[in-house]
Every structure is written in structure tokens, then in C-alpha cells.
Amino acid sequence: MAGMFKNMFGGSQPSGSAKLEDDFADFVKAPEPSPASIIAAVSSGVPASSTPGVSAVPYTKWYRVWERTSPKDFLQEAMVMPFILLIVVFHLWGTRKNRRKAREWAQAHAPSLQNEFAVVGFNGIQKSEEEAAAVLASPDSILKEKTPQEFVTYATGRQNVAFVDVAIKLPKRYNPITYWMDITFGFLFESWTSPTETYEAIAYTFDGKEKDVVPVPAKDTSSLKVNNSAYDGFIWAVVHKNHMRQFRQDRYDASMTFTKENQKLPSWVTVMTESAEITDTLLTPELIQAVEKAGDNFKYLIVTDQPVDKPLKIEETVPRKRVHICLSLPSSASGYTSSVPLFDQFLRLADRLVAVAHFRAEVMRKVRHAREEEIKKLRRADEEEKAEERKLAAEKIKKEERERLLRGMNAEEQRKFLERERERGQKRSMKKYTKRG
């Protein structure tokens, strides 16, 4: 009994080694497992270092790329590289060709711009004859590359013309996918525009607003003295018949004119005007000869005061007088000899407008009537839009008031209210049905 309490509450005495049975002798004698050396495993995959005490790792062929690879490992790259090189070569060729085309245009037209304007290009006023001669020696300096397919230039400093903007538009030769897709789709589908080489020039006339546009030197207190450059606003165009349909579809101002043949012009050219008297006044022998000489490179020449895009607001109908010409680029630089005379006529057309474009009251009354009709349509559409907005606002207020009343009612009152609404709706429907009958 005492031994039992001693074992329960007393300290335990160190016991001797337990007696093992013969069946477990083999397991007891087995050696205990030891952890594997991690350092040795890691060091085998790391190259030899200069740290003392660490053994050097052998330099195997894993580090010699030329021994563990072969050309067949780069088969996919070998298949892709020719296409990449082809695209790069095509891009360089297309970019250089577009720049060469723009440079040829500048070489042909820079003398005309220099003769007519005080400032040509984006470098400011040429203060000396040497600077002007440098522009003629390097005409591509007047150009600015907006994109690889579009080049622009600018000219100002002339009587009757505020400034001239020129844009040279070329195909996307630098992108072979887009370039060939445009050519293919343009050949297959009439609605798809084929890539073309054209240049457009727009001359914005002063129209008697020199005092609002031309800056006066700070020390000069006298008012600006200029001739009256105002002329009547109208729309008149000479168009190549191959481009007449697209011209009328693309331009809102062209849709306001009627087409009329003129015996003085070649058979492949027509006139689009608002009055025959305007044609008789503007169609000079020099202009007719220049159009004939330009040939198929000529697209259109238009004198207008209306926007190109159809106006959606009354503010957009404000007249802005300008002269616009569009021609195709010839295939070679020598082809510009036939189109430069027409470009010269375009630059001087503003002078003729100021001199002779003052027509009889009957002619201008007809021209103004067409513009007033368009303004009435816009005003009517604007009033209908405002009436619709007022109607929607009133319905919104009425709906909010109805919801406010319903929130303040209990279930029985809401039921009666909705029932009265339904009865009123039925009565209105019956009245409409009776009136129709």
C-alpha cells in the first residue's frame, strides 16, 4: 500500500534499462536516420566562387550555349524572321518614297508660293534674300511631316488672302498590310476608297476683316489701311466628272448647287453653281486653259462660304469664305509642269473675287434664300428638340409628384388611387377611339 502511494505522490526513482524482448531486438539495433546535407546539394548547382573554404564547381557544358543547342532549336524564329525583315524593308521603302513624293511637290510649287506670299513654311518671316534663296535651294524645308502619309505646309502674308493651308495625302506605303488591303478592297468594292496620291490647298480670304486678323506693330498707333477685300458669298465649283458624284456626297456645300454644262470647258469637266451669272463672271480664259493643261490630275476647284460638313446648329452656318483646290500627284516630277499653272490660278483667284464677285441683287437674293431655308430647318429642329426636352422634364416632375403622393398613403388609399388612374386612362382611350371612328 505504501509503495502504491509513493508511486502516485512521491518522486519516481530512476529505473534501469528496460528489458527488451527478442522480437524487437532488430529494430532497436537499427541506426537512427540523419538529415541530408543541404549545403552540398545546393553548392553542386552554383559555380565556383572565390569564397575560401568552398570547393570549386566544375564548368560543365551547361554554360556553353553553343554546345547544348543546335539550329533546329531556332526553327520557329527562322520562320518568323523573314516576315519581320520584309515588313521592316517595306516600311523603310514606303516612308522614303512618300518623303520623296512630298519633296518633289515642294520643289515644283515652292517658287509659286515664294512669289505670292511673304511667309512660306513654319520658320517665320524670311528677313533677307539669302533666307528666301535657301528655301528655294532646299524646298522640302517648307514641309512638315504630320504622319508618314501626310505632309503639310503653310503660307501667309498676301493681299486679300489671310493664309493658305496645303496638305499632301499619300497612301500608307509604310504599312504593307494596310496598303495592300486598301488596294484589294478598293478594286473589289466600289464603296471602299482606293489609296490615292493627292494634295489639297485651301486659301482663306480676308473678306474685309483685315483689321481683326492682321496684327499692328506696338509703336504704330495709326489704323491699318487696306483696300476693301469683301465680296459676295456664294458657292461655285469646277469639277472633274469622274469625281463629281463623290464630291457631291462628301461636301455639304456642293449639295446646295446645281450642275450645268459649259461649252467653254472640256467635255470631262462640269460646273456646279448657284447661278449661271456667277459662272460667266469667274470662268476666265486663263482658268480654262489651266484646267485643260492639268488634265486627269485635276479633281475640283471650289469657291465657297459654307461648311464642308452639314451644320447641326445655327452657329455652324456662319459664312466662312475660302477657295479650295484638289489635284492628284503626277507619277514623275516632270508631270508638275502641267498642274503648276492651275495652282497659280488658284493662288490669284482671291484677287479676281475681290474685283468682280459683286453680283446683282436678284442673284444674291436667290443665293440668300437657299441659306435661309437651311437655317429655318435647323431652327425648326432646334425648337422641336427643346420642346421634347421640356416635355420630358414635365413628365419627370409629374412622376416624382405621383410617387410622393403614393408614399404618403396607406394600402387602401393606394388601391383607390391606382384604380382611379386606371379608370381615367380607359376614358381617355375611349375618347381617342371615338374620335378616330
TrEMBL record:
Biased composition (Basic and acidic residues): 415-426
One annotated GO molecular function: calcium ion binding
Region (Disordered): 415-437
Localization per record: Membrane
Gene Ontology biological-process entries: endoplasmic reticulum calcium ion homeostasis
Keywords: Membrane, Transmembrane, Transmembrane helix
Pfam families, sorted: CCDC47 (PF07946)
Main subcellular location of this protein, as a coarse class: membrane
Membrane topology: Single-pass membrane protein
Chain segments annotated as transmembrane: 74-93
GO cellular component, one term: endoplasmic reticulum
Protein name as annotated: DUF1682-domain-containing protein
Lineage: Eukaryota, Fungi, Dikarya, Ascomycota, Pezizomycotina
